[in-house]
Amino acid sequence: MIQSTVATVKANAERSALLESQEKRTPMRERILQLLRQQPFQPFRLHLTNGMVHVIRHPDHLMVAQTYLVVGVPVSDTATHEVSEVINRSLLHVVAVEPFIAATPPAAN
């Protein structure tokens, strides 16, 4: 009887932690989806808990699942659609999103 009570308490705690993490992910997920659907598309940055930053220059470079992202790493800074690799990132690790404005080179005289 005590073991089943302990198991129930443990299961409830795990379920509660899962629901809490889903609640934290949902607003960020919705914000990212909003940015991807924006017309015209505007590039943006994803800031992660480990300090990494992914620049999303094209909507095809990011896939949003329920709990994670699939980030396409472009072949170069000028590549439009072509990616060299894809990386999975948990939505829990996305701490901020912000617009990306590419630096424009100075005008030649």
Task: Report the strand count.
Answer: 6
Q: Give the uncertain stretches in residue-range form.
A: none
Helix content: 25-40%
Side by side, the strands of the main sheet go 2-1-6
Q: What percent strand? A: 25-35%
The pLDDT mean sits at: 83
How would you sum up the global shape?
A: elongated
- Please trace the helix and strand order, writing H or E for each element: HEEEEEE
Determine the N-to-C terminus distance.
84 Å
- How many separate structural domains? 1
Continuous helix count? 1
Biggest sheet record? 3 strands, antiparallel
Structural class: alpha+beta
Explain briefly what this protein structure is.
This protein has 109 residues and is an alpha+beta fold.
Features:
alpha+beta; 3-stranded antiparallel beta sheet; 109 residues; single chain
Describe the structure.
The structure is a single chain. The chain is an alpha+beta fold and 109 residues long. It has one domain (2-99). It contains 1 helix and 6 strands. The strands form 2 sheets. A 3-stranded antiparallel sheet has the order 2-1-6, with helices on one face. Strand 3 and strand 4 (68-74) form a beta hairpin. The longest helix has 36 residues, at 2-37. It is elongated, with a radius of gyration of 19 Å. The relative contact order is 0.17. The mean pLDDT is 83.
SSE blueprint and pairings:
Elements: H1 2-37, E1 44-48, E2 53-56, E3 62-64, E4 68-74, E5 83-90, E6 94-99
Antiparallel strand pairs: 1-2, 1-6, 3-4, 4-5
